[in-house]
Amino acid sequence: MSGHLALVGGGEFAEGCSFDAGLLEASGASEVLVLPTGAAYEHPQRLVDQAVTWFEGLGVKARGLDVLGRPDALSEANAAVVASSPFTYLVGGSPMHVRSVLKDTPVWDALRSAWQGGAVLAGSSAGAMVMCDPMVDPRGGAFTLGLGLLEGLAVIPAHNAWSEDAAHRTRKMSPARLVLAGIDESTALIRSPEGAWRVEGAGQVVVFLGGDPADLSALPA
Predict the structure, then answer these.
(1) Which domain holds residue 208?
(2) 101 dihedral zone (left: phi>0; alpha: psi -120 to 50; beta)
(3) Hey, is 61 helix, strand or coil?
(4) What does the alpha-carbon distance between residue 181 and residue 185 come to, in Å, rounded to a whole number?
(5) pTM
(6) Number of domains, the chain
(7) Which one-letter DSSP state was computed for residue 14?
(8) DSSP codes, 92-136
(9) CB neighbours (10 Å) of residue 144?
(10) pLDDT confidence tier of residue 211, bands split at 50, 70 and 90
(11) Nearest Cα to 126, choosing from 159, 91, 173?
């Protein structure tokens, strides 16, 4: 059975992210593995340091794994670290970079297999976007290929900060059967191992099916 999966709207490792305590408990982890792939060109260590401080406050350690470019994702040694992690966090930045780095690599295969085997997996902002297929292209709000861990679902992170025009444009471009979830910052849309979805954290999640308002029951199990 797969583990818990958390799609976080950004603003990770900060006040309001109350869901991390429950994810930790579910994972049984004494250490959280942080992949700063999306922030490769935006001071990735800064996010790792933020995670270390945040999880220290929750009583566990965190450490980064520098999967920043494609050679890192092709490393069997890095894949082995990911495979053995009970709780892995894929953080924000550029979803296009995350996709280009991880697609068809041992590290992505290890991440997916670990989650399918019961590990907890969290993706924030870009990390949440790429897990879905299709994926919202932040350059214009249209849809592009994601990594496909979740099919038929796309997410808009930091939905509370999106302009109504941008969100409306993305909704209008949604295929008929696509579920689109707008997730606020410091908020998580969490899938349980049984396939049930819930919302936790500081903000809200709005759901659309084919561009029309829906609710959590529309999300794929």
Answers:
(1) 5-218
(2) alpha
(3) strand
(4) 13
(5) 0.96
(6) 1
(7) S
(8) -S-HHHHHHHHTTSHHHHHHHHHHHTT-EEEEETHHHHTTEESEE
(9) 17
(10) very high
(11) 91
Among residues 188, 127, 137, 135, the alpha carbon closest in space to that of 166 is found at: 137
What's the half-sphere exposure (Cβ side, CA atoms, 13 Å) at 163? 6
- Which pair of tokens denotes residue 59? 């009583």
CATH number of the domain that 22 lies in?
Answer: 3.40.50.880
CB-CB contact of 127 with 92 (8 Å): yes
Q: In what helix (H) or strand (E) does residue 201 lie, and over which residues does it extend?
A: strand 197-201
Give residue-wise pLDDT tens across range 54-73.
999 999 999 999 999 999 99
Residue reference for tokens 């050679």: 71
Nearest to 204 by CA among 186, 219, 217, 191: 186
